[in-house]
Amino acid sequence: MALAIKICGVTTLEDAWMVQDAGADALGLVFYKKSSRYVAPETVAQWAGRMPPLLTVVGLFVNASLEEIRRAEFLCGLDRIQLHGDEAPEFCQAVGPRAIKAARVAQADDLLGLNRYPARALLLDAKVDGAYGGTGHAFDWDILRRFEPDAPLILAGGLNPDNVAEAVRRVQPHGVDVSSGVEAAPGRKDAEKTRRFVENARAAAVAGA
């Protein structure tokens, strides 16, 4: 299976096109108001008809209501719903087959119970107190050696152009997700960093195939 690459925290239409030009597969839109990468669904709705046609569009939510998610899904034409908060398996079930469940990981115990989520994929991010992602911190990838997820695994947390190849080789995930590691400033992506991230991730995936 080819490695999927997602660039998260996109806040402008310009950066959305840059992400596609860099060769990524998906972009993430953060609909969490406390994030420095927040973008309003109404803003994204204004991009209708001008979004890059080849990207999977993922909406990221943190402890949002089902009504909030459905509204953003309708306004923005989301392909996937990333649940990045403390949502229960039952909520994931209610969201439906587009759901990606994110979990914050610091130790092996944080992986317990994740297979109870009926998710399209599991995204593993670093656990940092008071934050729901986008911190630039990584977790110990060796924790995953004995983890057997029932859904495809997406690796996140502290990835950047310089370490993504090692991450792909060691973890062999189905996908990788980056936000702060390819930024010029919070919410604004750097084209060169994004291009290098995609190239390095793809090269490692091909070498390990």
From TrEMBL:
One of its GO terms (molecular function) is phosphoribosylanthranilate isomerase activity. It catalyses: N-(5-phospho-beta-D-ribosyl)anthranilate = 1-(2-carboxyphenylamino)-1-deoxy-D-ribulose 5-phosphate. This is N-(5'-phosphoribosyl)anthranilate isomerase. The lineage of its organism: Bacteria, Pseudomonadati, Pseudomonadota, Magnetococcia, Magnetococcales. Its EC number is 5.3.1.24. It holds the Pfam family PRAI. It is an enzyme of class 5 (isomerase). Keywords: Amino-acid biosynthesis, Aromatic amino acid biosynthesis, Isomerase, Tryptophan biosynthesis. Residues 5-200 form the N-(5'phosphoribosyl) anthranilate isomerase (PRAI) domain. Gene3D superfamilies: Aldolase class I. Belongs to the TrpF family. NCBIfam families: PRK01222.1-4. The keyword Amino-acid biosynthesis applies. It comes from Magnetofaba australis IT-1. GO terms for biological process: L-tryptophan biosynthetic process. InterPro entries: Aldolase_TIM (IPR013785), PRAI_dom (IPR001240), RibuloseP-bd_barrel (IPR011060), TrpF_fam (IPR044643). CDD domains: PRAI (cd00405). Pathway: Amino-acid biosynthesis; L-tryptophan biosynthesis; L-tryptophan from chorismate: step 3/5. SUPFAM superfamilies: Ribulose-phoshate binding barrel.
